[in-house]
Amino acid sequence: MNKNKTIQFLDCYEMHPCLWNPREQDYRNNNVRLAALKSIIQEMRLSITVEELKLKIKNIRTTYNREASKVAKSKKSGAVEDDVYRPQLIWFSVADRFLKPVIEGRNSKDNMVSLIIIY
């Protein structure tokens, strides 16, 4: 996918929160998720299978998580605003607007579990 197509894909992916938001009622409903994946393929006129689309989503999410982690680490290091890591991916801000709250919510739960285990 080229950069513009990736941005278009992310906009389409965002419209299907059952695929990325674990707080969504249909997140665990495989039939709804499958329909959403097929809808993305149709809307974007992709000539790929559902399994290939799942792999593309996984790759994008992995890259997004890696970049978001670099941003978070640079902020925790006490870097001044000008020195905070800024991803060079043209599509990062598009993914960040809807994935960041989901990722942050998940990480804060992980931290709570760690605290409980320590004590």
From TrEMBL:
Domain MADF: 8-104
InterPro entries: MADF-dom
Protein name according to UniProt: MADF domain-containing protein
